[in-house]
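User: Round two. Same drill as before: sequence, then structure, for each protein.

Assistant: Same drill it is. First protein:
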Amino acid sequence: MGTIRSTLLAPVYWTLFFIIDLSFLFIFTFTQSNGIDLNIVPAPGECLKIMLIYLCVGIVAGFAALLMSVTLKGLIQGKSRFNDILVLTVSITINCLVNIYDLSNAHHLPAFRYHLIAGVILVPPCVKIFMFICKAFTRNVFLTGVSLCVSVEIFWSIIRCFPKGAYWGTGMSFGSTLLVAVCVGGVVFSFLYFVSPLLVTRTKRSMVMLTVIICAVCIIYKKNVAESGIIEQSGPSNKQANVILIITDTIRADFLSSYGYAKETSSVLSGLAQESVVYKNAYSTASWTLPSVASILTGTYPGFHGGHRVESAGNIFSVNKLAEENVTIAEVLQQNGYTTAGITSCEFVTGKFGFDQGFDYFDDAISNYCFAFLSFGLLRFLDVFIPVRDYLWASGFYGHRIGKQINESAFRWLEYAAPREKPFFLLLHYFDAHHPYLPEGIGISDETIPLDIRRRYALNSPNYTVLENSIIYSVIKGKKGLLADEYALLTENYEREIQLTGKHIGEVFDTLKKLGFYDNSIIIMTSDHGESFGEHGQMLHGTSLYEETIKVPLMIKYPKKDGTTGSIDFPVSLTGIVPTILTYLGIQMPPDIQGVELNNSEGQKIISQNYSDPSWKYNQWTKRFAQDLISFRSGDYKYMKAFGGEDVLFHLTADPDEKHNIAGKNHLELSKIKKKLDGYIRDLQLADSSVCPIGVDKKTIQSLKSLGYMH
């Protein structure tokens, strides 16, 4: 019975770990006046899931200790408390290892710090220290265990939270943080072990109840403060307009009904179009995320801001980050009294690539469990029978975040941290429409995949993502074109992804209206690039500059008091978003802005650039993409220049699908357009590709492979 009782202690200890972790999340969130770390507070449903995980780990720890106890049975005769000590040691050791792993994967800590934690502080001596303490206080092992668990978890909570919390940025060194953690842990242990028995009679029960009560008070207090803040504060109408920039990933304009698509792919976006100025011919500056979003935020072209692919030695994926010399709209608005927040969903729109510039609060935390397929044989084994890969992707655990995760973070910021007495700028980036198109349903089944397609590829995998990759790469590799039934399958799923994205955006609108922000906000909705579905023998994006990959939706809803709506047909560049916003707000533009206001038809420079991936030249089936491209639209003509390739000219009115190259038939027009583009390349400094190179680490490479950017 004693052994079983000891085994059952482990879940109790892990319940304490959970309670303390949750308490610290609320405490640290509450202490942040600028919204830092709001993204780490789980929703109630997530709390329940996390608690169940903690309990499961506790049960595993208890069984592990039980097996160890049976194995060492001959060595512990006469030592009745050995089982209790063993359970406590196993639990705290697992706790330490989990926290070391957590720290080692946190981008908030420089590498030398978490190596210091992992290698020097805890791993070798922890078991001996805990055993020594338990033996020294054998009069009440349960109370000792509770005290140790509480103090150790407080130690780890402070270590984990301080590097991201309010005090870290005010001069607290790592050594000071460690000292504070040790001191607090020691004080808590001393109080729990020596003082609390004098205050309560039923020690075992009261220690657990005391911790639960403290946690409950923190949660209730936090909830009351937050709710009262929402009730008392509402968005005033007499302040400067808020700016909300919504960038959707991979939505091409011609798949929205407001742009002429036959189906209603998003009623939310159609509703937004009725309240907005809709730009019917808006062009991205690039056909993939990093350079396009950089252009949207800076009002400059890729060759100038430098955020794009870069040639590097050997077959290594490398890109330029957005250098600090660039001035983003977040920085401009921040300097003019705005509170700024950004919540992003893709590896390429993170602080690692320079996109956190000018943000008071920047949530780019992306859960990436790709390592599980490399590190854990069990998951790789299960993936053969059940669609584990699909589940990770659909849940936002595969190198990106889904719209639900973006909204959870956005709602917390809007409700608890968005200012009511001054304006704010909020950037939201949604990734849902990106390949693979997995809006609903996981896995391959008779209901989701036509029989002919399943037979055509005959894959030994239950994952839809694997099948979709096979279809896409059969086209990219030039084996065949995209067949009609394959086109129907992919585009129908893509349409549902757009519907899902619209649903998430609609939820944000509902929250803005509830909080009183909607009517006094400029809301810009656009996409970073489009997508290819077999056109020109291409799939996905990032390899060409045809219309399907660079023509994107753009809608701007102005504050209700202005009531500005309408439709603009002349071509505009997304570099015009920044000058349009700043002009409306009456804020002076930075000197390097290259875009012009979107209502200026004469000054638009419709230029897009695509720098090739340096690895493409080493792959037989990607060699055809291995050349830098620049495109330029002049009136009805569109010119594409491939450096090292042939010139291409299309007349978009007569040939909207870009099937007929007329460069050889219209030499005079081609000469005029080339001369004009050469002048822009020179004047706008679009030929530089050597700005702030950044090599990509192994973890990022795994993310990029999962997103289809590397093969």
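Second protein:
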Amino acid sequence: MSHRSTSGCPPEELHTQVEFSSGQPQEGSPETEFRKQPDRSFVRQFYNHVLQFPDGLSVEMWSFQDEVSGRRFPAPLIRVREGEIVHVELKPAKGPHTIHLHGVEPDPRNDGVGHTSFEVTGGYTYQFRPQPGQAGNPNIGASGTYFYHCHVNTVLHVQMGMFGPLIIDPASGRGRAFEDDPTGYDTRAETLMVPYEIDTRWHEMNHSAGLDGEDVGLNRFEPDHFYLLGGDLNAPPPRGVDGVSVVGEILATPPGHRPGLLRVNNASYFPTLVRFGGGLMGELISHDGRPLRDTSRSPSPPVSALTNILSFGAAERYDMRLRPPAGAKPGDTFPVVVDLMHWITGERIAAETVVRIIEPADPPQIDPGAPIPPAQPGLPPRPEGKAVIPSGEPSPSSGQPSPSPGFTGSGGKGRRGRLALDRLTINNRQRLRTVRTRGLRVATRLQPETDALRVRVFRMNGGAKRSVILQQFRTPGTSARYTMRLRSGKFRRAMSLGRYELQVRPSGGGTVGRTARYVFQVIR
């Protein structure tokens, strides 16, 4: 018998999926079927540990850690891009567990719902690929805010802490919420907020409490501690340090600049109400990982809704741009009140935080900076603007921020090379920024202590590096802004397709500052 697929799934994969759906294991550590080379890999290992919360509560938590995170809560962020093949290796303990990618739709083996797939005992590598977005198509794409959690004795294990944030970026990376996002967001002002509460009685139960039919009280959730977990997504928690990550403040930008983005992920079992005060508004752009669109039109353009109040239930997720009132300036703050409403009594328990306006980028940010897609009928045009790529994890060689996995721009012989850095620290006194020009323009603010700045660009060929340009200039010893335009024919000829490393080193007074490194790529 021959097998043909009409769903785009290869016949052998479709055949095994049918067999799996009718005879899957209940527990075990099976091999990952049709395993492919991943673009991103993560490890999530179970831990149980007593953690202290900001209000002084010390309670046993169960959650996930990776190789370097330490025992953090919530579990470490998984952040990937549309189209990437992703592996998440689960290493359970204290009984079987799973990882369910809440809102993502992988094949049944990798969905992590124990009673429809299997519960993991010794280990399993989940494999999935977020669907690439398509401009104007409401049915294609996966970018947005999600979370992952254990789906064994789910209501207890999630309350115990077995969950973490999952963010899927469009293929272009951070700075744009989805493929044809016409506005984007300031990556320096991206905040995760996770309402959560604790019923300490539940934290004394065992792994399988209630699974045998006994009444252990899992239908009575009576929390007495309430938190807003998360924080600044541009400042990850310290590695190797146990602790709880909570929202200190939510970041926004002044009117007229690329707005801040608030990602809301409700881990509360209660209905939740978020209220913005002082004239601050939230611009809703996405719900449960799906952009809001005008589906009465085809193609369907993105739409949004301004509000100062948002009501939602357990496990819902919202992405919203933050819109301060006219006249708001850096340093201003606006109140945010989060009401967690008891699902039986209706009692309101409030948690509060603030939105703080940060200094805008200079010049004003207009565009996320990813390659601009072709014009689509019925879609608003995307303006030309500054390309800004956020700082990421410190690079091992320099300790300085660099993007992960790297910035992909466009260029080539005779074409414009694009590279942008956002507040890349040179040392404790100077900050470097670049904006897009023909070739590359490097701009920096230098303090009196530094009187020279050397910039080098290396072509990377495997492990070897070949210097393609060297520039140096001196300052008069006063704080000022200086610009170098690397626009020579030599530079444009050198910027052929490939990977490059930009190195910036300040010096002065007989001292040499630490070299900052930034890797980027030139593609067609």
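Confidence is low (pLDDT under 50) at residues 1-6, 365-442, 445-449, 475-491.

User: Perfect.
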